[in-house]
User: What shape does this take?
Amino acid sequence: MVVLWDRPSFVDWKPMVFRTCGLWVVMPWTSGTRRRSTPGSTLKRPRYVFLVAGTVGGIHANSTRPADFLYDNLMIHSTVVQAAHRTGVDKLLYLGSSCIYPRHADQPITEEALLTGPLEPTNEGYALAKIAGIKLCETYRRQYGDDFISAMPTNLYGPGDNFDLWGVVTCCRP
Assistant: This one.
């Protein structure tokens, strides 16, 4: 899979490119500079796009920089979705986040809980951008017939996980 957009105007744009399972993966990022790219060209038309990119942070970062998280993630999602639409990809999978659900949603959370109450204030900017990404996929599917879908991975732990009641998981284990 190859998904690229026009080169941003800043110098420190460094994409990471690798091939896995027969697919080309391109993950653009910056070192401390906001993304300012627009939908553009691709090296070749990808068949599948897995939209898992985003600006993320902990509680402190989310609560002190809500505009950065909202803006950066809105730009990433809208840029990639529009580029996927323009190039006619076969399927786009957008990964949301469990933070999109209301702060006091009934447990276990169901999909129907989306947009039924206030969000957690400490990550509202990030959550709003993730909700917008979900709705962007839904509207492109409805208006253009694009096969754009979304999934919400949940926060799970279990056997083999590094669970600490007072901390957070700091690494992924195979």
